[in-house]
Amino acid sequence: MTTANETFLVVGLGNPGPSYAATRHNIGQMVLDHVAAQTGGRFKAARRAPAVVIEGRMGPPGAGARTILAKSTGFMNTSGGPVSALASFYGVDPEHVIVVHDEVDLPFGTLRLKRGGGEGGHNGLRDITKALGTKEYLRVRVGVGRPPGRQDTADHVLAPFRPAERKELDLVIDEAGDALELLVLEGLTAAQQTVHSREAR
Predict the structure, then answer these.
(1) Is 25 one of the annotated active-site residues of the chain?
(2) Spatial distance between the Cα atoms of 109 and 126, rounded to a whole number of angstroms
(3) Nearest to 76 by CA among 21, 25, 141, 23
């Protein structure tokens, strides 16, 4: 269970600009935009990092945790610098960094929570691991599925969602936001039990 004096840095991965906004690679930022809309928060330029942030709390008043929502204003493969700078500025240890990102190794809409592990060819995760000097940060993995046929993985994640996927996208983003809140408020094990058992049904 999270205590009220803990601080989490929650990073939604993506690329900048309108041409990338609706692509699979940007689903991490879509989740943070959804959470921000629910809480009424507005992103503002971060100090000492090329990013935008919302400083707030997640959970009921007087409980939960101080939470910094962050989106880099640079490209995916340079995510590490902003994440490291923000973690340092806000005094957040790597174990309290949460990265929300697209995951091609999970079917579309599947959610998985974990700490550490490999990057699976994800350039954003690879750069964050390098910058933080550890893999032991938390991840909210949002499934976007494997590329069809012989399509290149990079082309797949940089393409918009298919029409059938777009019909389900709002629900997926909403559930990812709920999973993120559970992770912050209840801790990894309890959140995994809830989110992963829901997926298994």
Answers:
(1) yes
(2) 23
(3) 25
